[in-house]
Structure formats: structure tokens, C-alpha cells
TrEMBL record:
GO cellular component: cytoplasm
Family: Belongs to the phosducin family.
Gene Ontology biological-process entries: protein folding
Protein name: Phosducin like 2
Superkingdom of source: Eukaryota
Sequence ranges assigned to domain Phosducin in this UniProt record: 6-170
Pfam family, one: Phosducin
Length: 212
């Protein structure tokens, strides 16, 4: 029993080590322990990578047109990039920036950037704003152009989260489209109106005099 506890204590030494210490202590573990040590090392490595990425992408950054290729098109292949082309005089653009600023904190593994549209595309029409492009490996994987496609003037942050998740840019915990309830209510209302019209039409037909 004492021997088992001693063995367990020895194996768990690695849990207090950082990556450098694990590397230096490899010779101190026997073959049986090395599997557990290696699994733990990989876990620590993934945690370190996640932390590095979080520190790198944890904010909504402003870029200009000259940085577009470097920051967006040529971003690392394993990184999703969400870029918002905006104009500060358009309220909907400000709302999208506000929501993206919140989402970037929840999804730091994705790269969120924004750019004033004139610095990237000349003579871009206001009716096309806000514009959100989603990139991966230099290719556009999703696009939302204009107020309607971006979710409307009453856009909620959860709705934008769902849109980005649908194209694969982020992994959301949301189980269904937050706008689904509103859409269901609209569908129900339309069906009720149609049914009401049908009923009125049938009633009118019944009340028509039978002229021969």
C-alpha cells in the first residue's frame, strides 16, 4: 500500500512541471510512466498554444487596406479571419463593431479585424454596408453584405454568433438559431392571415345570392 502511494506520488510530479521542466526530467521516468507523462505534456502544449493564440487574437483590431493581404488573405492556414468593412457614419456598422468586440473575447482562436471600407474598396456603396467577410486559407468562406444579410437593425450578438458559426468560423454553444422564435412567430402570423382570408372568402361565397 505504501509502495503504491509512493509510486502514485512520483508519477504525479509531472503535473507541477512546465514544458521545459518536463523535457529536462524525461530520463527520471520509467517506460510505464512515460505514456502518462507524454499525454500530460501534449495537454500542456495545447494549453500553451491556446494561451498564445488568445493573447494574439483576443481583440478586435483595426487595419487599413495596405494590411489586408498580410492580415487577412495571408493569415495562418489554421486561423479563421472575420473582417468587417464599415463606415463610422452608419449606425448598423457601429452595432456590428460592438458585437464583434464582444465575440472576440469569447472566441480568441479566431482573428477579428475591422477596416474603414474606403481604405480597402473605393466607391463602395453605403447600401452594401455593413460587409462581413469570413476567410480561411486565403479563401472567402462566408459573406454578409448589407443590413439585411448581417441580421437587420435589431441584430443581437447571439444572432451574429450563430451566423459566424454557420459558416464554420467559430464553434458556438448555441443549440439553435436565436432568431428562430421570431421567424416562427412571423410564419405563424402569415399562416393565420392566410387562413383568415380563406375563411372570409368562403363566407362570402356562401352569402352570394344564387342567381339563375
Amino acid at each position: 500500500m505504501v509502495l503504491c502511494l509512493q509510486k502514485e506520488a512520483e508519477v504525479k510530479l509531472y503535473e507541477r512541471m512546465n514544458l521545459k521542466e518536463l523535457k529536462e526530467a524525461e530520463d527520471d521516468f520509467d517506460e510505464a510512466d512515460m505514456k502518462a507523462v507524454e499525454m500530460y505534456r501534449q495537454q500542456r502544449l495545447q494549453e500553451w498554444k491556446h494561451l498564445q493564440r488568445r493573447q494574439k487574437y483576443g481583440e478586435l483590431r483595426e487595419i487599413c487596406g495596405e494590411q489586408y493581404v498580410k492580415e487577412v488573405t495571408n493569415a495562418p492556414k489554421d486561423v479563421w479571419v472575420i473582417i468587417h468593412l464599415y463606415r463610422s457614419s452608419i449606425p448598423m456598422c457601429l452595432l456590428v463593431n460592438q458585437h464583434l468586440g464582444l465575440l472576440v473575447k469569447s472566441f480568441p482562436e479566431a482573428k477579428f479585424v475591422k477596416a474603414i471600407v474606403n481604405s480597402c474598396i473605393q466607391n463602395y456603396h453605403d447600401r452594401c454596408l455593413p460587409t462581413i467577410f469570413v476567410y480561411k486559407t486565403g479563401q472567402i468562406k462566408g459573406r454578409f453584405i448589407g443590413v439585411a444579410e448581417c441580421g437587420g437593425i435589431n441584430l443581437e450578438v447571439e444572432e451574429l454568433e450563430w451566423k459566424l458559426a454557420e459558416v464554420g468560423a467559430i464553434k458556438t454553444d448555441l443549440e439553435e438559431n436565436p432568431k428562430k422564435d421570431i421567424m416562427d412567430m412571423m410564419t405563424f402570423s402569415v399562416q393565420n392571415i392566410s387562413a383568415h382570408k380563406d375563411t372570409n372568402t368562403k363566407s362570402s361565397d356562401v352569402m352570394k345570392p344564387n342567381i339563375t
